Amino acid sequence: MPDIVAFGEVMIRLAPPHFQRLEQTRSLDLEIGGAEFNTAAGCVRLGRTATWVSRLPDNPLGKLIANRVREIGVSDTFVQYTPHDRCGLYFLEFGASPRASGIVYDRKESAIAQVQPGMFDWPTIFRGARWFHVTGITAALSAGAAAATAEALTAAKQAGLGTSIDLNYRSKLWTPQEAGRVMSGLVNGIDLLIASEGDCRDLFSIDGTDFADMAQQLIERFGVRCVAGTRRETPLVWRNKFAAVGYTAGQLYESAWYDVEIVDRLGAGDALAAGLIHGLLDGDLEKGIHYGAAIGAIQHSILGDLPWITREEVEAVLAGSGLRIRR
Amino acid sequence: MPDIVAFGEVMIRLAPPHFQRLEQTRSLDLEIGGAEFNTAAGCVRLGRTATWVSRLPDNPLGKLIANRVREIGVSDTFVQYTPHDRCGLYFLEFGASPRASGIVYDRKESAIAQVQPGMFDWPTIFRGARWFHVTGITAALSAGAAAATAEALTAAKQAGLGTSIDLNYRSKLWTPQEAGRVMSGLVNGIDLLIASEGDCRDLFSIDGTDFADMAQQLIERFGVRCVAGTRRETPLVWRNKFAAVGYTAGQLYESAWYDVEIVDRLGAGDALAAGLIHGLLDGDLEKGIHYGAAIGAIQHSILGDLPWITREEVEAVLAGSGLRIRR
Amino acid sequence: MPDIVAFGEVMIRLAPPHFQRLEQTRSLDLEIGGAEFNTAAGCVRLGRTATWVSRLPDNPLGKLIANRVREIGVSDTFVQYTPHDRCGLYFLEFGASPRASGIVYDRKESAIAQVQPGMFDWPTIFRGARWFHVTGITAALSAGAAAATAEALTAAKQAGLGTSIDLNYRSKLWTPQEAGRVMSGLVNGIDLLIASEGDCRDLFSIDGTDFADMAQQLIERFGVRCVAGTRRETPLVWRNKFAAVGYTAGQLYESAWYDVEIVDRLGAGDALAAGLIHGLLDGDLEKGIHYGAAIGAIQHSILGDLPWITREEVEAVLAGSGLRIRR
Amino acid sequence: MPDIVAFGEVMIRLAPPHFQRLEQTRSLDLEIGGAEFNTAAGCVRLGRTATWVSRLPDNPLGKLIANRVREIGVSDTFVQYTPHDRCGLYFLEFGASPRASGIVYDRKESAIAQVQPGMFDWPTIFRGARWFHVTGITAALSAGAAAATAEALTAAKQAGLGTSIDLNYRSKLWTPQEAGRVMSGLVNGIDLLIASEGDCRDLFSIDGTDFADMAQQLIERFGVRCVAGTRRETPLVWRNKFAAVGYTAGQLYESAWYDVEIVDRLGAGDALAAGLIHGLLDGDLEKGIHYGAAIGAIQHSILGDLPWITREEVEAVLAGSGLRIRR
Amino acid sequence: MPDIVAFGEVMIRLAPPHFQRLEQTRSLDLEIGGAEFNTAAGCVRLGRTATWVSRLPDNPLGKLIANRVREIGVSDTFVQYTPHDRCGLYFLEFGASPRASGIVYDRKESAIAQVQPGMFDWPTIFRGARWFHVTGITAALSAGAAAATAEALTAAKQAGLGTSIDLNYRSKLWTPQEAGRVMSGLVNGIDLLIASEGDCRDLFSIDGTDFADMAQQLIERFGVRCVAGTRRETPLVWRNKFAAVGYTAGQLYESAWYDVEIVDRLGAGDALAAGLIHGLLDGDLEKGIHYGAAIGAIQHSILGDLPWITREEVEAVLAGSGLRIRR
Amino acid sequence: MPDIVAFGEVMIRLAPPHFQRLEQTRSLDLEIGGAEFNTAAGCVRLGRTATWVSRLPDNPLGKLIANRVREIGVSDTFVQYTPHDRCGLYFLEFGASPRASGIVYDRKESAIAQVQPGMFDWPTIFRGARWFHVTGITAALSAGAAAATAEALTAAKQAGLGTSIDLNYRSKLWTPQEAGRVMSGLVNGIDLLIASEGDCRDLFSIDGTDFADMAQQLIERFGVRCVAGTRRETPLVWRNKFAAVGYTAGQLYESAWYDVEIVDRLGAGDALAAGLIHGLLDGDLEKGIHYGAAIGAIQHSILGDLPWITREEVEAVLAGSGLRIRR
User: Fold this and answer.
1) Rounded distance, CA F222 to CA E100, Å?
2) What are the E-state strand segments in E58-130?
3) Of A273, B56, C17, F50, which one has the greatest count of Cβ atoms within 10 A?
4) Would an 8 Å CB–CB cutoff place C300 in contact with chain B?
5) Predicted ipTM of the assembly
6) Is F301 on the interface with C (CB under 8 A)?
7) Residue D324 resides in a domain
8) In this structure, what CATH number is given to the domain that contains residue C65?
9) Chain C residues closer than 8 Å to F17 by CB
10) For residues D267 and D39, what is the distance between their CA atoms, to the nearest angstrom?
């Protein structure tokens, strides 16, 4: 009976060590990552329980993913194994200004991309759960995955769960037009929509004067309850300023700004989502914005997509604990 | 104007360090390998020139493969780049008795598997060349790849090149029946067929009293000129005895037996093929058997599929140089 | 409701890479291991479910252990966290003949060594379980740990669980006299005792003409049901011959002998115990001997104490699958 | 006959590579470090000779520490080996803003914590020496260690050595009250006290209007000759501004400010102490402040606690040599 | 028929990992690098073809260099192997403010330092080529190398190639006086001179009011066609601002300024030279300045001296693509 | 006042990891080694004290060597630093049957090769010492080194020290004729000559019916007191049988044979020499043969040339301690 259910793909991430380019490397560091699972893991680190729903190939790579899902404390009880499919992979190059970090996806034909409605028994999965989280990436994997996402959202609402979607538009997976059409259907009536101004403009043609204006339009058009997003000042690859913002019922909430030194940029948005859900499970978007900004800021300092952070550390950052070595 | 032309797939090989299982690993060592290319590289190391013909995706992984092909001295002039395909990958686990080494292939939908006849201008490729080498793996990739292989063999013979095929049956790619049907057509009239007793039995239903008998049957049925194979006594994963055997025109040639301590089992058969071609380019199968056995034996001591061996080292082993540190 | 409950210490294992001595090393590879947990993990890999009961410090090292316990699929639900204790550590040097591998323990004052009877609610822990496994190491940690072990064994028998003890005498933890006194009490009436001839002689002054004779004496003195042990011919550090033997109700069972190339000697006996329990859960000691010998033999090829082996691999070894690369 | 004698603990430091958290790591980089020894090593690098006095367990870890003490050029002649104790360990996580670096100590029951007065023959140790250095960490290890520190200070003064103490308050070892009581006794009449404003306030309830005021109060209360400290502007984990300040006989000395890019924060204060002693051995606090600030600034760029820096490099920084690659 | 011919030394570069000092390291990362070759490689990455002319010892280290030259796509056809010489080596320490990065050369008696005029058949080498590039380092290796450089420049001009020299003064190889005397002869009448203000002052006693003034003087004194250089603001070791500037025929061209986060400082100037040649091959110094600044800026983010950068990436930076992860 | 004085070169050893060839490697593991120093270190590990006499360049590489000399406990007090020379390097490739391990030397022009008689104050160096050890490698470095060796031997004898020479013929340094001529002079009247049958034949034209016969001839011709050597059966690169043999005053001493699994073949003979000297310092060649064989056998299991072995371990092997893990 986990608090949170997340549905989506986890890929194996392969990255050359120490800023090497893929072309020159002789080894790859292996991590796992997937937006929805990352968020589930963040919720676990903040003290909640979570389960991850997906499909994996029944081979050592699929098992590796499940092993690591359990390692960070998320349940893999509802993962289905398939005999012939493959794991999604992505290759990551770490950059330095003026060279951005880059990703090469090799995720076609993955086990979860073959999902179809009816494959998962959502009422059983949702029994005892309080929240369902998914992102636009799942919907982008295939028509079947989009349909299964819709099926899951419907079931979640019927089961009385809170629901959240992180738009997470990926230009390497689909066009803004496709994404806009599919996501418009999915976001209808959900409790939390996480979205950037750019994605709202490109997918929904919603262009606000500011975040609150954009959020209000989203609320009106799609009947969502809360809208949240990140703020980022990006002068460099190794250093940013980072904050979170949220809006609900006419009220805007803004977090503190954090100076972040960036070990690994991936997973920050997913950690933010975990903080948001953590707050909303207590019925408190403002709490979610503060926890989300803090855990998201810390996540920039963590190697890999997964939030190896403790709630105590998040709360210490919220309390302004400073940067001296603790000893 | 290379001496040898090889046609086939090169994959990226990813292996956990130090005998780790894939399930438990946190990094992967990256090498490249592909049977036909490995043999071309062996020929270069023995003093010949070679070019490798294939298709690669136009992304960092495809370029990585081409970089390393050039690194060992094989030409990539005729490699074609495709915009949307992927690289074949394989994951290798190193074993120890009683656990055999294992391979997980992830090679579906690779750029070379999409090849069709007509894509390569073989007469241009073969201009000035003396030998064409391919293996059963290329034919197993797809119907298009099998057809392109047939096209290449025909063009090679027309251009007056010697031709060789290593059967290299792979049970993860096709059935013995499929392989037998396709390979029967390809081996017809070639100069050198490399085959194991087991594969001959399974693919061609040829079962000899000994190697000479089997080879004689192959020669009679397929009109091949020479037949060669390895002999291996396999008590352990880390140690074998290894030798080569060849047959042509009623004459059997046998190499010395080598005690091999095994750093990396892959590529030994491909190195043997290089030694064979090296001999046959001098019209001398017996030389080929001796060079093939020696370079194949040494290849067990080399990390990766590629033959980082010099001709001087091969000739030193042939001369019985012993195992003392040279200093 | 796991099939197997295991009780004992898991330590962090720190080993210099590539045969280095501790004195000279600049890095340490980190694994976890503990005899009882290793066995629980082996049961999970063979298809059973298992939970591990212990105490850990509430710090990153304690959490690291719990993370990895979950990673391999064992439940950590009943692990207790303590605010001030430490983790047991052990430092491992890999040897080569004539230098044996060596261990430096740094496990005093660990959280589990502070355990006392009454700290764990055994009836709750055993609910739905079928087997309880412990070793002499747990009893050797402290008087409290020995008393808690006795308490657990009593509760397990009351709950109708099968019980097993691996003597696992450790001369760095206690004397043969102490061990004999304590273990005599614990082994009384258990279902499976795993013991070597040497330990029986040193701890219980039982000296048989052969394994069957020794086992019969143990059965008679302690009322145990089955006795099992390993057979090992040890010519070298990197290579052994390995087999298992068991005895019950007047019947001796012997496994095949395996040639083992040794990547990492640790955990082989614990894997054997897993195979034994796997068989006995089906009421079949002979099956246990065969599975135990096979998984124990394979375990020599695995880096780390943990059995990263699949049931399919064990059954392939039992079926004599050979040592060729699978491809 | 070393110039400097240092007394204290050296621990083995274990740190996950590349910003990993302890919870997720699979290997640990091993260094050694201890405040007093680090300072002794800094003196050696600046051209002095030094010996380190301590106790170590007679096992590979203890020998590892002694090996490395000698490696950097400090004498281990007076180190005592004990048969049963353990080495202190500390686990270090490297941070990035907003996550501070963190340390988990595992140093209880170390060999040096068991020290008692009378164990070391201080008159022999001090023969020919010119300076004795210790820090508050040694005194915090145990009552015996505090008493042995007092004994050593007395003997040093009797032998005519200069004496220095770095307060180095560690909240994980004792309370400010305990530290204040013990350190008040020890600092009496020493030549150099290194202290931060915060520690003076917390330990001695001394709160000055500025550094000079605080130092003057310390001089008056404890009869110390010189007081020194660091100045640090800490905007980030990877970058600081760093300087040194000293006061004696009514005169304040301030170093230049250095922009430091931080590879490893540990050991900077200990390197500063080495510079201070280096100056005071020439009777020149101002020289000490300048050398101390420069070597302390450079130490931020050095991996590990130990000052792998040459005097020529310190003097080049003092001369404003700039940041271009030397070639 | 390569577009560009480069003449000079390639050394093996050995660097301790992760900011370690040489004194403390236990391993060295191996790259290759040499100013002229680096530039040739940069031209290849921008879409040109190139060949590298040099001498190497006929041993594994010499072959390693040639392997890697081919790996990045530069031809090694004209490399000569010598039986007894050695490879130049250099040892690199990565720094952090206030510690500059440092280099220890071990390049005496290298194969290329033994070069003499007449050893290379320049007319054959230059057949079909369009540009010849060399630097002051080649001339500094030995009198023979300087004479061979003069010989090559003469032959290049006779063959109608464009010519470029990067002054690249190295104080560890020769004095400014020697360098000024030799380089004055070599730069006469070349098409592109790359020079810093400092080197012009020290070698040629040319001191301009600004870059244009200095360049005009160089043009007048030496009859060169274009002069180019870098601009660098160097607040720190890990971060710079970087730009390029060029002058020809009374016209000054300035690139944009780039914020560079520095993974590896080496090779940036050589990459700039590649961009300049790339522009001048199209007869366009302004293009060269822009491409040179962009590829030079990106090169700071690349591990090793070699420009593992694509033309697409250079053009993306020129187009202001920003620093967000591409996905 | 060390027991043993050793004179010779220590080089930096650079080896590709995990059986890689130099041509393919991207990193090198760094150790130090030199025959005479290795032996001195072995004596220290057996409980003696030792000093190493040599010359090093005054740069980070020279200091690295001195650091590590001290690390293992040998004194560097008499090492001289030179401003302009270089360190000797050697590159090591680890082999596997049928590929022998190989070494590429890059040691020309090293600081110690420039040594001349008169540079070292031998009477001071030998004060209080009991034994002087050198090998034929030192004499092979240069005429100056041979002369300095002769000077040192004369001084050692005058000072009453025992003397030993390990012939250690290196074909890459000189011819058998040169070696025979020089070494004939040096070995005259020494206490211990370590030599193989092959070297005696090639250098001195001494060919015995067995070891005793050869030794007797050496004793008669050169007036040496004892002769010792190794026995080795070399079936493979990873496994040997190893023993020691010695002869003095008509008596032959033979050690037990050891099965050795070979981690690193280098340094075994130097460790043997340490055991021999250890015995002869007690006036007991037989003890020396036994200790020498045991420490030499263990040395095959140690990474690097240096004997990271304890006297307790040597004595445990002598006592037949077996190969079980100690725990």
Assistant:
1) 57
2) 80-82, 89-93, 102-106
3) A273
4) yes
5) 0.96
6) yes
7) no
8) 3.40.1190.20
9) 18
10) 8
